[in-house]
Amino acid sequence: MSAVLSVRNLSVALPTGADRALAAENISFEVNAGEILCLLGESGSGKSVISFAVMGLLPDNVRVSAGEILLGNENLLTLSPAALRGKRGDDIAMVFQEPMTALNPVMTCGDQLDELLAEHTQLSANERKAKTLAMFEAVKLPEPDRIFSSYPHQLSGGQRQRIMIAMALILEPKLLIADEPTTALDVTTQAEVLALIKTLQRERGTAVLFITHDMGVVAEIADRVVVLQNGKQVEAGTKDQVLRQPREAYTRMLIASVPGTEPPAEGITHDGAALLSVVGLGKTYSSGGWFQKKRITEAAKGVSFTLHPGETVGIVGESGSGKSTVARCITRLIDPTIGDMQLGNTRLDGVSRDSLKLARKRIQIIFQDPYRSLDPRQRVGEAIIEGPLNFGVSRNSAMARARDLMNLVRLSPDVLSRYPNEFSGGQRQRISIARALALDPEVLICDEAVSALDVSVQAQVLKLLEEIQAKLNLAILFITHDLRVAAQICDRVLVMRRGEVVEQGTARDVFITPKHAYTQRLLASAPGRGFEFATQTTSGHL
Amino acid sequence: MGNFLLKRIIATIPVMIIVAIIVFTLIRLVPGDPAAVIAGNMATNEDIARIRTELGLDRSFLTQLGIWGKGLITGDLGQSFFFKKDVVGLIGERLEPTMALAFLTIVITVVIAVPLGTLAAWRHGGWLDRALMGFSVLGFSIPVFVLGYLLVYFFSLKLDWFPVQGYKPFSDGVGPWLHHLLLPAFTLSIVYVALIARVTRASVAEALTEDYVRTARAKGLPESRVLIRHALANAAVPIVTVIGIGIALLIGGVVVTESVFSIPGLGTLTVDAVLARDFPVIQGVILFFAFLYVVVNLLVDMSYLFLDPRIRY
Amino acid sequence: MNSTVKHVLKNGAVRFGLSVLSVLVILAILAPVLGTVDPAWLDAINMNQKPMTTADWTGPDNKTVPYTFLMGTDSFGRDVYSRVIYGIRVSLVVGVTVAVVSLIFGTFLGLMAGYFRRVDAILMRVMDGMMAIPGILLAIALVAAWGAQLSTVIIAIAVPEIPRVTRLVRALVLSIREEPYIEAAISVGTPTWKILLKHVLPNSIAPMVVQGTYVCASAILLEAILSFLGLGLPSEIPTWGNIMAEARVVFSSAPHNMWFPGIFLALTVLAVNMLGDGLRDTLDPKFNKRGEKR
Q1: CB burial class (10 A; 0-12, 13-18, 19+) of residue A370?
Q2: pTM of the model
Q3: Pairs of residues, one from chain A and one from chain B, whose beta carbons lie less than 8 Å apart
Q4: Residue C1 reports pLDDT greater than 80
């Protein structure tokens, strides 16, 4: 096999004043025709910088400081900008992470492929259109003619990513760079798009440089893997070597952090009186008004479940399934349209302001985005004691409690006087947990609380939550789109789709013997399912 | 699409009603006896009484608002005290110079500001960018009348290229018309160029950071196409929006510029009317300009239909 | 907080703006001892003197002294230098007061509109109506109705600015209230008024300060325009606009009467605008679009 792309001793320098001097340091790898090489790394590993260096699309203040990038035998770094431009789109193509923003919103999908063909080929307008429609067919887009004259906003996320793939592959490039191409997609769509990339790549013998943070995706698609950490190459090898017999400690730690797709053991069943019971919860939104037909959206419909002290119940579902709506109804951040909610002996729906305030104290919530869930102008300590102060606790005792809580979430109490911007994402999420615990809640709702975190940090935060739960006998309602996380942490699971609960049961029942067709499809779509990672203890029998 | 248009048109109605109420209330803000103040020091008691009846100051606020509103709908803005004429007719007479000045200014502005702003955004931080930003903050800071006199001093008094003041109607021929109008229009366009160039620069610069621009570059398209077809096309909506909002700024500038260059348009009419405390004319001119502003911004809204398919569908 | 101040003060535009404004403030305060004479005093003998002319000047106390007219005199024989220096006072007072007044009202209305949906519907329609009237015209009309004194001029200039501040604050509130940290505050039982004061307001301060400088700059310009058109403060009060209004008549023979106050006016507005741009660049990149100005 001959290498399509050879990256040799590549270093990329960041502008002075950045948090490190080199975004990538002494990186070397080859991508051969017909194979998929995955660049695997957490945020800040330098994986995207390498892909932009190959494309010649680095930002002005970031530059290659050493090494060479060979496409075939040609060094891309010594090419003139015009010659490099001729290669882009033609010999090297790229698919990006965000299908929602990667296409020009004011141009039809057809035109966006057409301008590519017009730039790189001598084809006539009719030939270009025919070629585009054929390519739409090849990426399995329905009704190619309609799609041709549609604007991106009229298509779904999955369809847009198919357009991107069509655009990338239409000129049969030697090299395809895919930068987290499925990260923004729902898991079922992700499975379809991954399969599509693999099929087209095999058919055409394209070399693929695939950038991802997701171990499951690597297990699913890679031939060979390069692991990166803080801009340095940690290890490289075939997929089996790296994922099953990793040599380096960092790789082993990463792999150990990946939750398995199956619940570890039979969870403890929680009997007795329910702490939180939700019956027939529904939330409808109606839009439109005088001039438009009224549109009614049922964000949640007939949701019922119970939650016991010390228990973790998971709600899993794809985007738009209504899982967050349920969480926000229970905390009364939005008002449910219908249904009963009861916390112990207290009703949560249709209650007065004062009793709602008391109920709120007992249910606390942690949000997804660690960068937006803390007020940037409020010191961390003030954020943690805000709740207790609202309920008449004196400032001194609230502060003393805040110091204890910081110890509990493994942060130093000395940092209480700092502002949130001095903390990392994982640390902020710990602070959010401390803030929630400051009111001694009985129920903790985690709304995608670990979804924005790197896998190694995610593992730490999950472990912390489990410890705290054991210590305080908390009931946790865990909302997530990530099946692996849900499988690891939940005792019982509800699967939601389009506002409705399609299946619920113990985690083992739902994950090992799913009954509903949708649950089965969801589980089958989880990337890397069944792949045996090195140190994972659970066996992947299907 | 039809919905969008209908909604926008209907939304202008409450705006115009509120403008009308504000304008109507104006005369009632005059402290003491408005009729006496308007009539001036030399007026007899009969004059004052006559003005009071004419303005309906002897009736209740709501009754008079009703009568006035009815007049508005039938296109009757009342009579001028000072010019002894029908206000609508008076506005009609003074319309051409003002519209000509505004139109020429917008043309000059768009032709200069949009390309400059786009190039500045493309070479963000480059010399053109810095020069344009410097010019723009200067443009915002030099009062339009000082600038007008500066230009008059050099181009009319010293170089004698343009007339010092005055206006020639379009019917006298394009040459003389343009000769008289070029200096005022250029004066007026400076602050407007500063505004539009700034917004163009900001919007294009923002579009250039978007993922679809990265996609366009990854496709190997030439920079000119990336800049115009991808970045500028997406920046069009905010640019056009500011051109619309800027109309208010432009109208304010028209009043001053007309005064500097003695152009007999609506701006000079406004100043004369205020000096003569001729309230029906003041009210009429304000209503007219507000109406103009609303109509221009309605046109701007309609242009979104062509510029952004997300609104069209 | 201290580090924010340091960060802001490193900005060149902020430094320029603050330096020029400090000099102007000092000049305004020290006006009587800077070799000026009574700026309203008409000395018929010294009409239309050229700049740097030295002549005998007879003051209100009937004493005649030799005096150098640094910037010449106007057609009434008033000393332009004294009028320009005293004119700083009016411009700065108008600029600052208008900014403060419109920020106070605009912030209050914007918070109400942004947080209470019912208030929003009605209030924003009224604001739309006010915005449809070009600011200069509304100010002219209000001065025409109220008569021209310092207080009425300030209010007349502030009124058209209020809807713009209201809109900005409302947009800020609407965007801030979507932030998860507001939902977190609701979850820990913080009452609405406390959320407005402790979370929404502190996060709105930076863009409001920037807007305040823009309002100040445009108020100084607007006051000058009113005076220039002869619709502002009475002509005996020394304002830059008034000096220039009188300079129009003798422009072809004595253009310097236009330039001296013009330079001061442009420099002042430039300093305020530079301060605003510098603050915007250092404090808040998102909300102050120049397009929303005026």
Answers
A1: buried
A2: 0.84
A3: 83
A4: no
